[in-house]
Amino acid sequence: MKRISRHIVEKIAFGIIGLAAVITAIPIIIIIISIFFSGVEVITWSFLLEIPRDGMRAGGIWPAIIGTFYLVFGTGMISIPLGIASAIYLSEYATDNYLTRMIRLAIVNLAGIPSVVYGLFGLGLFVLFLNFGSSIIAACFTLSIMTIPVIISTAEEALRAVPQSFRIVSVGMGATRWQTIRRVVLPQALPGILTGVILGLNRAAGETAPILFTGAAFFLPKLPQSIFDQTMALPYHLFVISTQIPEMPIKIQYGTAAVLLTFVLTMNILAASVRTWHRGKRQW
């Protein structure tokens, strides 16, 4: 009787969780479909590949697309190596003491700080103190500081999830600690690490406040020539045309939002495909 009641309770719990997931997903799906249907009319090759004209009321969004790619690529180049290296140290080398517990607590807290705070920090440190000016490099460093805590947290959890027996067997066969980490632990933890990378870079791709203070230009109808130039970016461009430009056609706003969503979803699909492929090769 107890087994039957537990089974019933379990089914009810799973049903409630599934219903909550559906209720959460439906509004998101409706919003995404609405944005795409409202913006598909304006998405043409000229809209994607031309520079903006007439105060951004005409032309295209090519500089904003390229600028977003530069920012995400630069952020990844900085945050991914630092985040994974930090996670490896905390998981595989650091002893469990008061200092490391405080570091982990600080990382968790940093992951929850509002993005506007990171923007002000980047303005003070990179733009003013280090004299990078309002530039791509300043924006990339600011976005990296914002994404590193997410990457560290998820990567460390993924590394800790690898069974300890894998490490014991590898060391027992004569491998060094670093060889064990590089050839055994990291490949097995890669799906979880990729999850953190996806979350971090997606947040960087969609943020407006940090780049508003550090590197995004209001109207810049040309491509940046160096990392010390300003750039347009899709999130800031969407914010400007939605709030700062009177009589902006609504279809252009929806079209820009649809392109930004496509950019983020494409990143998700590519990374998720790589993650699924590696998860299929996992040995546990």
Keywords:
mainly alpha, 11 helices, 2 strands, two-stranded antiparallel sheet, single chain, 1% strand, MetI-like fold, globular, 284 residues
The CATH superfamily of the domain at 65-233 is known as MetI-like
Discrete helix count: 11
- Oligomeric state of the chains in view: single chain
List the helices and strands in order: HHEEHHHHHHHHH
Estimated share of beta-strand residues: under 5%
CATH topology of the domain at 65-233: MetI-like fold
Neighbour order of strands in the largest sheet: 1-2
Q: How confident is the prediction overall: mean pLDDT? A: 87
CATH architecture of the domain at 65-233: Orthogonal Bundle
Q: Structural class, from helix and strand content? A: mainly alpha
Task: Report the end-to-end length measured between terminal Cα atoms.
Answer: 35 Å
Largest sheet: 2 strands, antiparallel
Q: How much helix, percentage-wise, in residues?
A: over 70%
Number of strands: 2
Can you tell me the residue ranges where pLDDT is under 50 for at least 5 consecutive residues? none
- CATH C-level label of the domain at 65-233: Mainly Alpha
What does this structure look like?
With 284 residues, the protein is mainly alpha-helical. It has a domain of 169 residues: MetI-like (MetI-like fold, Orthogonal Bundle), CATH 1.10.3720. The protein is 76% helix and 1% strand. It contains eleven helices and two strands. Strands 1-2 form a two-stranded antiparallel sheet. α1 crosses α11. The mean pLDDT is 87.
